[in-house]
Amino acid sequence: MKIKYNFAFFDEGSKREIRRATLKAVSIPGYQVPFASREMPIGRGWGTGGLQLTLSLIGKKDVLKVIDQGSDESVNAVNIKKLINRTTGVTTTDNTHEASLIQSRHRIPEVPLEENQILVLQVPLPEPLRAVQPSEYVTKRLHAENEYSGAWLMLFEQIVKFGKVSTGADHPVLVHDRYVMAPSPIPRFDNPKMNYSKALILLGAGREKKVYAVPPYTKVKSLAFEDYPFEVEDVHSKKCRLCGSSGAYMDEIIDAKTGETSFQCNDTSYCLSKLNNQSVLKASALDINRW
After folding, report:
1. What is the full DSSP assignment across 232-280?
2. Is the residue at 214 inside a domain?
3. What is residue 37's DSSP assignment?
4. What is the chain's Cα-based Rg?
5. Number of domains composing the chain
6. Looking at the structure, do residues 256 and 187 belong to the same domain, yes or no?
7. Catalytic pick from 49, 70, 206, 271?
8. Which of 65, 99, 159, 234 is the most exposed place for a label (fewest CB within 10 A)?
9. Are residues 28 and 84 in the same domain?
């Protein structure tokens, strides 16, 4: 028996409530807006916040792309894509250029986003001050007072201990010169992509019941000291073993038999597009040689 759902799973009242929270988040860049997080058919911590944002915003004409840690074909990405597709019937794609709505976990696509696109990021821990202050009441007051010495202290302790800032992911950012924000567990490599992004970026935390946003063309600056400037991971010295690209965020692959190390583009769609372009160029060269 086929079960019938309302379009995009949620009832219309739930969608309106999430949209109101989203509108407030867009109006106050970087500010964490509470919302009534719903129960979802996936476990909390696996993308319920981003999924709720997507389901509240998606329309029948949208083209959807879902990625999880750079992959379009991971178990989590495939299952979320199936849920949205079965309750909306919208077109899905693996091509970043074609998508109007992109839901992602832990990555921002390598391909630069455009004005007609919305990127939804799933966030496990939205509070950048939680490591230094466990009280929600106190962190809200610190945000109101623009008091972010705790975030700076975390970075300073890393410098004292390791000689450099050692954040691998979720490096805090200052949005619109006002709110310090946790940019989801994206690698430092992706932080600069948020600065004056053409696309609307929405971040949702289902377990923590928060939504916040970076509107298009908004200043986003990664926290850093003058004598220890912000630096992304070294990617230019690495080449993808499949497409040969450099300058993209890479996964390190270790051969279990030989112990040899190689690298591969983390964004599988980006890697595939590079391979397809190379195939087209080779085919064109063969045609020219025939003539």
Report:
1. ----TT--BTTT---SS-EEEEE-TTT--EEEEES-HHHHHHHHHHHHH
2. yes
3. P
4. 20
5. 2
6. no
7. 271
8. 234
9. yes
Burial class (CB in 10 A: 0-12, 13-18, 19+), 184: buried
The answer to whether 206 is a known catalytic residue is no
Whether residue 280 is contained in a domain is answered as: yes
| Catalytic residue list contains 243 | yes
| pLDDT by residue, tens only, the chain of 291 residues | 456 778 999 999 999 999 999 999 999 999 999 999 998 888 777 789 999 999 999 999 999 999 999 999 999 999 999 999 999 999 999 999 999 999 999 999 999 999 999 999 999 999 999 999 999 999 999 999 999 999 999 999 999 999 999 998 999 999 999 999 999 899 999 999 999 999 999 999 999 999 999 999 999 999 999 999 999 988 888 899 999 988 899 999 998 888 899 999 999 999 999 998 876 555 544 444 444
Looking at the structure, tell me whether residues 276 and 217 fall in a common domain: no
Q: Which long-range contacts (CB under 8 A, 24 or more apart) does 137-143 make?
A: 143/31, 143/32, 143/179, 143/180
Full domain range(s) for residue 48:
12-222
* Catalytic one of 49, 70, 206, 240: 240
Q: Of the listed 30, 47, 168, 259, which one is catalytic?
A: 30
From the list 47, 204, 206, 265, the catalytic residue is 265
Same domain, 195 and 254: no
- Shared domain check, 136 and 79: yes
Record the pTM.
Answer: 0.92
Same domain for 187 and 115: yes
Whether residue 240 lies in the annotated active site: yes
Residues 29 and 72 in one domain: yes
Domain boundary among 204, 222, 240: 222
> In this structure, are 151 and 201 located in the same domain?
yes
